[in-house]
Amino acid sequence: EKGGHDYFMLKEIAEQPQAVADTLRSRLREDGGVDLDLGDLDLRDVEKVVIVACGTAYHSAMVAKYAIEQWARIPCEAELASEFRYRDPILDRSTLVIAISQSGETMDTLMALRHARAQGARVLAICNTNGSTIARESDAVVYTHGGPEIAVASTKAFLTQLAACYLVALQLAPAADPAAARRLLAVPSQLAGLLETMDPVRKLARDLASAPQVLFIGRHVGFPVALEGALKLKELAYMHAEGFAAGELKHGPIALIDDATPVICVLPSPGGVLHDKVVSNIQEVRARGARTIVIAEDGDDSARPYADDLITVPPTEPLLAPLLTTVPLQILACEIAAARGHDVDQPRNLAKSVTVE
Ligand code: M6R
Predict the structure, then answer these.
(1) How many CA atoms within 13 Å lie on the side-chain side of 287?
(2) Per-residue b/e over 117-148, b at no fewer than 16 CB within 10 Å?
(3) Residue from 54, 158, 329 to probe ligand 1 pocket by mutation (most atoms less than 8 Å from CB)
(4) Which residue, 179, 251, 280, 336, has most beta carbons within 10 Å?
(5) Which one, of 355, 357, 346, 19, lies nearest residue 153 by Cα?
(6) Residues 219, 278 contacting (CB under 8 angstroms)
(7) In angstroms, rounded to a whole number, what is the distance separating the alpha carbons of residues 109 and 98?
(8) Residue 352 is among the residues annotated as catalytic for this protein
(9) Is the Cβ atom of 138 under 6 angstroms away from ligand 1?
């Protein structure tokens, strides 16, 4: 049932190329055309987008914010559903609220959705589970088509949520973007290639298994990837792990750095201004004794002099990078948890679907 893998989590990580292809199938064309079959939900005249979600799904919401702002030029906020539902947000018909949930049964996300509907907002679900409560109570659903996810830690659900969010962002954009569409359509085969290169990550996991804590830094869409890497490590390895926006290091977190602390650095795509800033951050943490593990694009050697370990992923459009940079962090968390003797698929204190507050 685990398809030859030791854990459901590894099986589901391996299924990601297919899962992302299934999310995109018949919805995105090479010319940039998007067809999401939203029924009566009208996406014209949306003036604001608010995305509500929990846990890993919240990290996909954070990535979606960058994509919707950049491609669609619509103001967008990503909100923790558990906070949003108890606030008094300003919403009306011109607001599109997107609820992201693998299970479609997460209580806080469902309540956030109901809160939004009651105030007249349009509601779109991005969901993996057909006929789930969140899907039923939304005006339209973009199913992620990721297939069943058994492991408590979300992996393929995350990547398929990201893919669905990119589709929604492209759909909201005023004009088709064939270049972005082609890069997105290329991701499934890039993922398949990437998964073949993960042996050094498994070896690294054995080295990191005894670290007292692990820190993750990233910027732009690499920031939610850093948060996701840290969440995976917390829930599976029961280690202290934190993700930071690299620009915030100097405002406090750099005090945590010492020579026993590995820092996993998600380097933005080369060419942009943030790339060089994160290279500087990598130098800074290394100068304070940290072991630096850098996730960079293939061919980007700029951080090599400051990287104790360099893990590379295939190049893509900067906004799409989380579809690739997340994968080594998933494998790292899984293998560290296994090395520490934990039940990877069923971590302590956690349930797959959080249907209570
Ligand atoms: O089913 P949902 O997507 O609504 O679940 C949200 C979170 O509970 C979930 O992503 C959780 O954070 C995962 N265990 C993380 O791996």
Answers:
(1) 7
(2) beeebbbbbbbbbeebbbbebbbbbbbbbbee
(3) 54
(4) 336
(5) 346
(6) yes
(7) 10
(8) yes
(9) no
Cβ-based neighbours of 258, under 8 Å, separated by 6 or more: 288, 289, 290
57 lines ligand 1 (CB under 6 A): yes
Q: Is 60 in the pocket of ligand 1 (CB under 6 A)?
A: no
pLDDT digits (tens, 9 = 90+) for 197-240: 999 999 999 999 999 999 999 999 999 999 999 999 999 999 99
Cα dihedral 5→263→351→123 (10° resolution)? -110
- Quote the ligand 1 centre to 149 CA distance (angstroms): 11
CA of 282 from ligand 1 middle (Å) equals 30
The pLDDT of residue 259: 93
Conformation bin of residue 341: beta by default, left when phi > 0, alpha when psi is -120 to 50: left
Structure tokens that stand for 326 in this block: 């997340």
Tell me if 146 CB under 6 Å of ligand 1: no
Query: What number is the average pLDDT over the span 294-306?
Result: 96
Give the position, in ligand 1's atom list, of the atom nearest the Cα of 352.
14
- Residue 160's nearest CA partner among 15, 329, 354, 352 is 15
Tell me the HSE value of 28 on the side-chain side, using a 13 A CA sphere: 30
Q: Give the distance (Å) from ligand 1 centre to CA of residue 152.
A: 8
Q: Tell me, what's the ipTM?
A: 0.98
Cβ neighbours of residue 81 closer than 8 Å, sequence gap 6 or more:
52, 53, 54, 58, 99, 106, 108, 109, 111, 112
